[in-house]
Amino acid sequence: xxxxxxxxxxxxxxxxxxxxxxxxxxxxxxxxxQTVVVYNDLDKDVAIQLxxxxxxxxxxLDIGSPFTVTTVTKDYDTVTDYFPCYRVTxxxxxxxxxxxxxxxxxxxxxxT
Length: 112
Known about the structure:
mainly beta; Jelly Rolls; 5-stranded antiparallel sheet; 4-stranded antiparallel sheet; 9 strands
């Protein structure tokens, strides 16, 4: 059985701008990031970009390509790259007026 952990990096975030918004940071510890889960309850589509850092969040690198989660839907993306820290950026082309965004990073470790 795999050992798992979950970090919520956006918690009911009421985004009201059309600029990039950074999430809180998830530290991996002994885990690898596996899946980014997005619940978009905003009234606009949102572009999600996973980022990783090797220096405790001083410098961020994009991991993979951004993916769009349409309004009032849920989606996920799987990652395989290891970084000590992860965060997510969110950006809407048009500023949302209602709703919120929640994002989790699911992590898994070696089987026990």
